Amino acid sequence: MNNGADILKRLILLILACILIYSCTRKGETAMNNQTDIISVIPLPDSSREINVVFYLENHTRICIKPEDRPFLEGMVKFLNGLVINTISARLEVSDVTGNDPQIILLLNNELDLGKEGYHLMIDKKQILIEGETEKGIFYGIQTLRQILPAEKSQSAIEISGVEIFDHPRFSWRGLHLDVSRHFMPVDFIKKYLDYMAMHKLNMFHWHLTDDQGWRIEIKKYPKLTKIGAWRNETLVGHFEDQPQQFDGNRYGGYYTQQEIREIVQYAGERCITIVPEIELPGHAQAAIAAYPELGVTGEPVEVRKIWGISPYIFNIEESSFEFIKNVLAEVTSLFPGEFVHIGGDEAVKDQWAESVRIQQKMKALGIRDEHGLQSWFIQRIDSFLASRGKRLIGWDEILEGGLAPNAAVMSWRGEEGGIQAAKAGHDVVMTPTEYCYFDYYQAENQNEPLAIGGFLPLAKVYGYNPVPASLNEEETSHILGVQANVWTEYMATPEQVEYMVFPRIAALSEIAWTSPERKSWPGFRQRIKKLAMLYKSEGINYSRTGLEN
């Protein structure tokens, strides 16, 4: 009897202990979740700590800048005030830094030691301080503040929990690509796309402007490029592999004027984004050859390509063709102030070169053994020209075939092998392998997903990518400039479709590009992406809900 009572007592004590442990665990989880909410930003900062105070953002809060910093930070003030207007419907007064409260201080600080894109953000009860060595750092601090603020607009003051963040990016190249050849995207959407990049601290916009299916950039010296090359007679309906192939019967096209491009370049620069224009050569040239048949190997007329896939048409190697390419690139380089020009170099079908008696004779005279060597010779000539214009050539990893041009950088898309080879040879590399970085791949195994090219790239797989191959040593690793995702638009006819394929995978891209690997956490990212999705919703972005469940 006594044994039974003793057992019962022990059982009751054990149950009470379990209840207590569960309660403490739940409180701990709640505290952890609250902390996550306070610093729930993407990409995850380098370091952060909670400050147990609250800052009140009100319509009489002032933006404060030192007088000597004002000429450099006018654009940052504009962005910050735009953020405040979207939050509390008020434009803040700008004044010199004082001891009066409340205030948001923007400060250039050369002693931060966080690099040109790093920033320090501190929110306490008196002020919000955003400081950086350059305006780029301050801009990224403002983007972090944007995610800390509530997504919903308020008509009065809002409370902002205290936090201190020190942050800087892992890579200098944090890229996002957009193909406007297969489907043309309007200027307003290009600007939105740049806004989306800035939101995620991406800084390199790879603009794929020419291909077989359309030439999208005005070149003054060659008006037929846009009069003829920018328009195809009709477009493929359904998937490329569907048989028989069907077409819509509608003439399709468009292009950007040089004035529009200048406007977009300026817009990008204000958002700390560099545009890398791509002019495809020697392959993917059918639209250019349709406009000027003499640029092709056969000289025969051809229409702008109306189906996807790889075209057999390739530039010839006559001096007149090099003159054409140089004149085009001269206008392109005058429009884009960035360091790099992308020349493609991928999927160049060389059958026409192999079948041309004239080209084979030229190869023999030059001592070139095969068509891969001829492409290398071709690319090296363009590399020299771009260098004379103060630019660096970058191309897809096929430019390695036959020998790499001396100044060239490589964008490794057919896996990582090309990037590894280039880095070991001392060339700079951007990693963008199809397996992890092609946002035209399906992101869900769902019958209701919009038509895509194929493949499967869910959010978790993007997030798990590390752009630095383990096989590289420290010196070789220094040549990995960063990472980029590519958006090919064969099956994205509208801006809304582009948004659906890019979001939320752009968030995973931003974190692998910005955040050090040891700071990354898939469970933590899954929690933070749910909050960021609220911002997507408030911005009216057509994002995919796949990967955001649970």
Question: Care to describe what's here?
Answer:
It is a single chain. This protein has about 550 residues and is of the alpha/beta class. The protein folds into three domains: about 130 residues, Chitobiase/beta-hexosaminidase domain 2-like (Chitobiase, domain 2, 2-Layer Sandwich); about 150 residues, TIM Barrel, CATH 3.20.20; about 190 residues, Glycosidases (TIM Barrel, Alpha-Beta Barrel), CATH 3.20.20. About 40% of the residues lie in helices and about 20% in strands. It has 18 helices and 23 strands. The strands form six sheets. Strands 8-9-16-17-18-19-20-23 form an eight-stranded parallel barrel, surrounded by five helices. A seven-stranded mixed beta sheet has the order 1-7-5-6-4-2-3, covered by helices on one side. α2 packs parallel to α3 and α4 packs parallel to α6. The radius of gyration is 27 Å and the shape is elongated. The two termini are about 50 Å apart. About 5% of the residues have low confidence.
